[in-house]
Amino acid sequence: MRKVPFGESLRIIAQGSKNWIAGRPIVVSFEVTNSCTCYCRHCDHGGPVDMSKDLKPADYREYMDVLRPVVVQVSGGEPLLRSDLEEVVRNIKSPSGLPYLILVSNWSSMTVERYEKLREAGVDEFCVSLDFPDAERHDDFRGLPGHFEYLEKIIPAASALGYDDIVMNNCITSWNIEEINANASKAEEWGVNINFSAYSPRRIGCRDYFPETPEKLAAFDRELEKLKKRMNSSHWITTNNTTLDATREYFRSGGAPNCKAGLRWLVVTNDGALRPCSMQFKRYGLHEQQKMVKEFTEKNTCDECYVSIRSYLDKSYTQLLSENVAEFFSFKTKDSKAA
User: Does the pTM of the predicted model rise above 0.85?
Assistant: First the structure.
Protein backbone atom coordinates (compact mmCIF):
# COMPACT_ATOMS: atom_id res chain seq x y z
CA MET A 1 0.00 0.00 0.00
CA ARG A 2 1.46 3.37 -1.05
CA LYS A 3 1.64 6.50 1.09
CA VAL A 4 -1.78 8.12 1.34
CA PRO A 5 -2.80 11.72 2.10
CA PHE A 6 -3.25 12.71 5.74
CA GLY A 7 -7.04 13.06 5.58
CA GLU A 8 -7.45 9.63 4.01
CA SER A 9 -5.15 8.15 6.66
CA LEU A 10 -7.37 9.47 9.44
CA ARG A 11 -10.50 8.02 7.83
CA ILE A 12 -8.79 4.64 7.43
CA ILE A 13 -7.75 4.66 11.11
CA ALA A 14 -11.23 5.56 12.35
CA GLN A 15 -13.18 3.04 10.25
CA GLY A 16 -10.52 0.35 10.64
CA SER A 17 -10.72 0.61 14.43
CA LYS A 18 -14.50 0.22 14.33
CA ASN A 19 -14.26 -2.84 12.09
CA TRP A 20 -11.56 -4.44 14.25
CA ILE A 21 -13.73 -4.12 17.36
CA ALA A 22 -16.93 -5.23 15.59
CA GLY A 23 -15.32 -8.25 13.92
CA ARG A 24 -16.01 -6.95 10.42
CA PRO A 25 -13.41 -7.38 7.67
CA ILE A 26 -10.75 -4.71 7.25
CA VAL A 27 -10.15 -5.69 3.62
CA VAL A 28 -12.50 -7.24 1.07
CA SER A 29 -11.21 -8.49 -2.27
CA PHE A 30 -13.83 -8.36 -5.02
CA GLU A 31 -12.94 -10.77 -7.82
CA VAL A 32 -15.06 -8.99 -10.41
CA THR A 33 -14.41 -11.57 -13.15
CA ASN A 34 -12.59 -14.87 -13.63
CA SER A 35 -11.66 -14.05 -17.22
CA CYS A 36 -8.08 -13.00 -17.91
CA THR A 37 -5.75 -11.93 -20.70
CA CYS A 38 -2.76 -13.82 -19.28
CA TYR A 39 -1.87 -17.45 -18.57
CA CYS A 40 0.46 -16.92 -15.62
CA ARG A 41 2.48 -19.90 -14.43
CA HIS A 42 1.71 -19.30 -10.73
CA CYS A 43 -2.03 -18.54 -11.02
CA ASP A 44 -5.22 -20.63 -11.13
CA HIS A 45 -6.99 -18.10 -13.37
CA GLY A 46 -5.99 -17.82 -16.99
CA GLY A 47 -7.50 -17.03 -20.36
CA PRO A 48 -11.02 -15.97 -21.34
CA VAL A 49 -14.05 -17.52 -19.60
CA ASP A 50 -17.79 -16.86 -19.54
CA MET A 51 -18.51 -13.49 -17.89
CA SER A 52 -22.31 -13.70 -17.97
CA LYS A 53 -22.57 -14.55 -14.26
CA ASP A 54 -20.39 -11.68 -13.05
CA LEU A 55 -22.12 -9.41 -10.56
CA LYS A 56 -23.64 -6.24 -12.02
CA PRO A 57 -22.19 -2.88 -10.93
CA ALA A 58 -25.19 -1.99 -8.75
CA ASP A 59 -24.88 -5.32 -6.87
CA TYR A 60 -21.69 -4.13 -5.19
CA ARG A 61 -23.53 -1.43 -3.26
CA GLU A 62 -25.32 -4.05 -1.16
CA TYR A 63 -22.05 -5.86 -0.41
CA MET A 64 -20.50 -2.60 0.74
CA ASP A 65 -23.50 -1.78 2.94
CA VAL A 66 -23.23 -5.16 4.70
CA LEU A 67 -19.46 -5.71 4.91
CA ARG A 68 -18.27 -2.07 5.24
CA PRO A 69 -14.56 -2.74 4.63
CA VAL A 70 -11.93 -0.04 5.03
CA VAL A 71 -9.90 -1.22 2.05
CA VAL A 72 -11.19 -2.91 -1.11
CA GLN A 73 -9.20 -4.79 -3.70
CA VAL A 74 -10.82 -5.03 -7.12
CA SER A 75 -9.22 -7.95 -8.91
CA GLY A 76 -9.95 -10.92 -11.17
CA GLY A 77 -8.98 -12.54 -13.44
CA GLU A 78 -8.32 -9.33 -15.24
CA PRO A 79 -10.74 -6.61 -14.10
CA LEU A 80 -9.98 -4.37 -17.10
CA LEU A 81 -11.88 -6.87 -19.25
CA ARG A 82 -15.06 -5.43 -17.75
CA SER A 83 -16.26 -2.53 -19.90
CA ASP A 84 -18.35 -1.38 -16.91
CA LEU A 85 -15.44 -1.40 -14.44
CA GLU A 86 -15.72 2.33 -13.79
CA GLU A 87 -19.35 1.83 -12.76
CA VAL A 88 -18.33 -1.05 -10.48
CA VAL A 89 -15.82 1.27 -8.79
CA ARG A 90 -18.41 4.03 -8.37
CA ASN A 91 -20.78 1.61 -6.63
CA ILE A 92 -18.04 0.49 -4.24
CA LYS A 93 -16.83 3.98 -3.34
CA SER A 94 -18.79 6.04 -0.80
CA PRO A 95 -19.09 9.85 -0.62
CA SER A 96 -16.81 9.77 2.46
CA GLY A 97 -13.87 8.69 0.28
CA LEU A 98 -13.79 5.19 1.76
CA PRO A 99 -12.99 2.48 1.11
CA TYR A 100 -9.40 2.94 0.01
CA LEU A 101 -9.70 1.20 -3.35
CA ILE A 102 -6.90 -0.79 -4.97
CA LEU A 103 -7.25 -2.05 -8.54
CA VAL A 104 -5.16 -5.22 -9.05
CA SER A 105 -4.49 -5.72 -12.75
CA ASN A 106 -1.89 -6.79 -15.30
CA TRP A 107 -2.47 -3.58 -17.33
CA SER A 108 -2.34 -5.47 -20.63
CA SER A 109 -5.25 -3.36 -21.90
CA MET A 110 -4.79 -0.18 -19.87
CA THR A 111 -4.65 3.19 -21.63
CA VAL A 112 -3.85 6.60 -20.20
CA GLU A 113 -7.44 7.65 -20.91
CA ARG A 114 -8.89 4.71 -18.99
CA TYR A 115 -6.39 5.19 -16.17
CA GLU A 116 -7.71 8.73 -15.67
CA LYS A 117 -11.34 7.59 -15.91
CA LEU A 118 -10.76 4.94 -13.24
CA ARG A 119 -9.09 7.51 -10.99
CA GLU A 120 -12.09 9.79 -11.42
CA ALA A 121 -14.41 6.87 -10.60
CA GLY A 122 -12.62 6.29 -7.28
CA VAL A 123 -9.53 4.08 -7.66
CA ASP A 124 -6.89 5.18 -5.14
CA GLU A 125 -4.11 2.78 -6.08
CA PHE A 126 -3.24 0.79 -9.18
CA CYS A 127 -1.40 -2.45 -8.38
CA VAL A 128 0.30 -3.84 -11.50
CA SER A 129 2.00 -7.23 -11.79
CA LEU A 130 5.74 -7.37 -12.56
CA ASP A 131 7.59 -10.70 -12.47
CA PHE A 132 10.91 -9.93 -14.20
CA PRO A 133 12.75 -6.76 -15.23
CA ASP A 134 13.01 -7.86 -18.87
CA ALA A 135 10.64 -8.82 -21.67
CA GLU A 136 11.77 -12.37 -22.39
CA ARG A 137 11.28 -13.77 -18.88
CA HIS A 138 8.32 -11.61 -17.85
CA ASP A 139 6.33 -12.46 -21.00
CA ASP A 140 7.18 -16.15 -20.68
CA PHE A 141 6.02 -16.23 -17.05
CA ARG A 142 2.81 -14.33 -17.88
CA GLY A 143 2.07 -16.29 -21.05
CA LEU A 144 1.44 -13.06 -22.96
CA PRO A 145 3.92 -12.05 -25.69
CA GLY A 146 4.56 -8.33 -25.90
CA HIS A 147 3.25 -7.61 -22.40
CA PHE A 148 6.50 -6.21 -20.96
CA GLU A 149 7.05 -4.01 -23.99
CA TYR A 150 3.58 -2.55 -23.48
CA LEU A 151 4.22 -1.98 -19.77
CA GLU A 152 7.41 -0.11 -20.67
CA LYS A 153 5.26 2.38 -22.57
CA ILE A 154 2.04 2.66 -20.58
CA ILE A 155 3.49 2.69 -17.03
CA PRO A 156 5.84 5.70 -17.54
CA ALA A 157 3.14 7.49 -19.55
CA ALA A 158 0.63 7.17 -16.71
CA SER A 159 3.27 7.89 -14.06
CA ALA A 160 4.22 11.13 -15.84
CA LEU A 161 0.82 12.56 -14.89
CA GLY A 162 2.19 12.82 -11.36
CA TYR A 163 -0.49 11.17 -9.23
CA ASP A 164 1.92 8.72 -7.55
CA ASP A 165 -0.73 5.99 -7.32
CA ILE A 166 0.86 3.14 -9.31
CA VAL A 167 2.47 0.22 -7.43
CA MET A 168 4.18 -2.64 -9.22
CA ASN A 169 3.61 -5.94 -7.40
CA ASN A 170 6.41 -8.48 -7.56
CA CYS A 171 5.28 -11.94 -6.44
CA ILE A 172 8.48 -13.63 -5.25
CA THR A 173 9.02 -17.12 -6.65
CA SER A 174 11.99 -19.45 -6.98
CA TRP A 175 12.29 -18.21 -10.56
CA ASN A 176 12.68 -14.51 -9.80
CA ILE A 177 14.06 -14.46 -6.25
CA GLU A 178 17.43 -13.21 -7.48
CA GLU A 179 15.75 -10.34 -9.38
CA ILE A 180 14.13 -8.54 -6.42
CA ASN A 181 16.41 -5.53 -6.58
CA ALA A 182 16.41 -5.48 -10.36
CA ASN A 183 12.60 -5.30 -10.26
CA ALA A 184 12.81 -2.50 -7.69
CA SER A 185 15.16 -0.64 -10.01
CA LYS A 186 12.77 -1.11 -12.91
CA ALA A 187 9.97 0.41 -10.86
CA GLU A 188 12.23 3.35 -10.00
CA GLU A 189 13.11 3.76 -13.68
CA TRP A 190 9.41 3.86 -14.60
CA GLY A 191 8.71 6.40 -11.83
CA VAL A 192 6.40 4.18 -9.77
CA ASN A 193 6.32 2.28 -6.46
CA ILE A 194 6.90 -1.43 -5.87
CA ASN A 195 5.48 -3.94 -3.39
CA PHE A 196 6.63 -7.51 -2.74
CA SER A 197 4.46 -10.53 -2.00
CA ALA A 198 5.13 -14.26 -1.67
CA TYR A 199 4.19 -17.14 -3.96
CA SER A 200 1.75 -19.65 -2.47
CA PRO A 201 1.96 -23.27 -3.62
CA ARG A 202 -1.64 -23.79 -2.54
CA ARG A 203 -2.97 -21.76 -5.47
CA ILE A 204 -1.96 -24.23 -8.19
CA GLY A 205 -0.67 -27.10 -6.04
CA CYS A 206 2.91 -26.76 -7.29
CA ARG A 207 5.96 -26.25 -5.08
CA ASP A 208 8.35 -25.79 -8.02
CA TYR A 209 8.00 -22.01 -7.71
CA PHE A 210 8.38 -22.00 -3.91
CA PRO A 211 11.91 -20.85 -2.92
CA GLU A 212 12.84 -23.38 -0.24
CA THR A 213 16.23 -24.80 -1.27
CA PRO A 214 19.34 -23.59 0.62
CA GLU A 215 20.58 -21.91 -2.55
CA LYS A 216 17.36 -19.98 -3.11
CA LEU A 217 17.05 -19.00 0.55
CA ALA A 218 20.64 -17.71 0.53
CA ALA A 219 19.86 -15.71 -2.61
CA PHE A 220 16.83 -14.22 -0.86
CA ASP A 221 18.94 -13.20 2.12
CA ARG A 222 21.40 -11.42 -0.18
CA GLU A 223 18.66 -9.64 -2.10
CA LEU A 224 16.84 -8.70 1.10
CA GLU A 225 19.96 -7.18 2.63
CA LYS A 226 20.46 -5.03 -0.46
CA LEU A 227 16.79 -4.07 -0.56
CA LYS A 228 16.70 -2.97 3.08
CA LYS A 229 19.71 -0.73 2.57
CA ARG A 230 17.90 0.93 -0.33
CA MET A 231 14.73 1.34 1.73
CA ASN A 232 16.50 3.68 4.14
CA SER A 233 16.65 6.37 1.48
CA SER A 234 13.87 5.30 -0.91
CA HIS A 235 10.18 6.08 -1.04
CA TRP A 236 9.11 3.81 -3.89
CA ILE A 237 9.64 0.48 -2.04
CA THR A 238 6.41 0.20 -0.05
CA THR A 239 6.79 -3.19 1.70
CA ASN A 240 7.84 -2.67 5.31
CA ASN A 241 10.69 -4.42 7.11
CA THR A 242 8.58 -6.66 9.33
CA THR A 243 6.65 -7.97 6.33
CA LEU A 244 9.90 -8.76 4.51
CA ASP A 245 11.24 -10.54 7.61
CA ALA A 246 8.00 -12.53 7.92
CA THR A 247 8.25 -13.45 4.24
CA ARG A 248 11.75 -14.79 4.85
CA GLU A 249 10.43 -16.90 7.76
CA TYR A 250 7.56 -18.15 5.58
CA PHE A 251 10.00 -19.38 2.93
CA ARG A 252 12.35 -20.91 5.51
CA SER A 253 9.68 -22.76 7.50
CA GLY A 254 7.50 -23.60 4.52
CA GLY A 255 4.35 -22.13 6.07
CA ALA A 256 2.73 -19.37 8.11
CA PRO A 257 0.24 -20.44 10.82
CA ASN A 258 -2.55 -18.51 12.57
CA CYS A 259 -4.25 -17.19 9.44
CA LYS A 260 -7.17 -14.77 10.03
CA ALA A 261 -8.84 -15.22 6.62
CA GLY A 262 -12.60 -14.84 6.90
CA LEU A 263 -12.30 -12.42 9.81
CA ARG A 264 -9.76 -9.71 8.95
CA TRP A 265 -10.21 -10.14 5.20
CA LEU A 266 -12.30 -12.16 2.80
CA VAL A 267 -13.03 -12.63 -0.89
CA VAL A 268 -16.23 -11.99 -2.83
CA THR A 269 -16.31 -14.14 -5.96
CA ASN A 270 -17.37 -12.87 -9.36
CA ASP A 271 -20.85 -14.37 -8.87
CA GLY A 272 -21.31 -13.02 -5.34
CA ALA A 273 -20.28 -15.74 -2.89
CA LEU A 274 -18.17 -15.00 0.20
CA ARG A 275 -15.02 -17.08 0.65
CA PRO A 276 -12.36 -16.83 3.37
CA CYS A 277 -9.67 -16.34 0.74
CA SER A 278 -9.10 -17.02 -2.93
CA MET A 279 -7.55 -20.41 -2.14
CA GLN A 280 -10.32 -21.70 0.15
CA PHE A 281 -13.41 -22.75 -1.77
CA LYS A 282 -16.21 -23.07 0.80
CA ARG A 283 -18.88 -20.57 -0.26
CA TYR A 284 -21.05 -18.45 2.04
CA GLY A 285 -23.89 -15.99 1.51
CA LEU A 286 -23.56 -12.24 1.87
CA HIS A 287 -24.96 -12.24 5.44
CA GLU A 288 -22.94 -15.27 6.60
CA GLN A 289 -19.58 -13.79 7.56
CA GLN A 290 -20.01 -14.73 11.22
CA LYS A 291 -20.90 -18.26 10.17
CA MET A 292 -17.70 -18.28 8.09
CA VAL A 293 -15.68 -17.16 11.11
CA LYS A 294 -17.09 -19.95 13.30
CA GLU A 295 -16.85 -22.69 10.67
CA PHE A 296 -13.56 -21.68 9.06
CA THR A 297 -11.50 -18.99 10.79
CA GLU A 298 -11.77 -20.39 14.32
CA LYS A 299 -10.77 -23.87 13.10
CA ASN A 300 -8.39 -22.92 10.31
CA THR A 301 -5.10 -24.82 10.26
CA CYS A 302 -4.01 -23.77 6.77
CA ASP A 303 -0.50 -22.26 6.73
CA GLU A 304 0.16 -22.42 2.99
CA CYS A 305 0.23 -18.73 2.03
CA TYR A 306 1.61 -15.37 2.96
CA VAL A 307 -0.15 -13.32 0.30
CA SER A 308 -0.05 -9.53 0.32
CA ILE A 309 -3.40 -8.99 2.07
CA ARG A 310 -2.44 -11.38 4.84
CA SER A 311 1.02 -9.86 5.27
CA TYR A 312 -0.58 -6.53 6.16
CA LEU A 313 -3.35 -7.86 8.41
CA ASP A 314 -1.74 -10.84 10.15
CA LYS A 315 -0.55 -8.58 12.96
CA SER A 316 -1.76 -7.15 16.26
CA TYR A 317 -3.97 -4.07 16.22
CA THR A 318 -1.22 -1.79 17.53
CA GLN A 319 1.30 -3.07 14.99
CA LEU A 320 -1.25 -2.75 12.19
CA LEU A 321 -2.00 0.81 13.27
CA SER A 322 1.63 1.90 13.45
CA GLU A 323 2.97 0.10 10.39
CA ASN A 324 0.14 -0.15 7.90
CA VAL A 325 -1.45 3.25 8.44
CA ALA A 326 0.69 5.63 10.48
CA GLU A 327 3.88 5.18 8.44
CA PHE A 328 1.93 5.90 5.27
CA PHE A 329 0.91 9.41 6.40
CA SER A 330 1.44 12.02 3.73
CA PHE A 331 0.50 15.66 3.42
CA LYS A 332 0.36 15.35 -0.37
CA THR A 333 -3.15 15.84 -1.71
CA LYS A 334 -4.74 13.03 -3.68
CA ASP A 335 -5.04 15.01 -6.91
CA SER A 336 -1.74 16.85 -6.84
CA LYS A 337 0.36 16.42 -9.95
CA ALA A 338 4.08 16.66 -10.34
CA ALA A 339 5.33 20.16 -11.01
Answer: yes
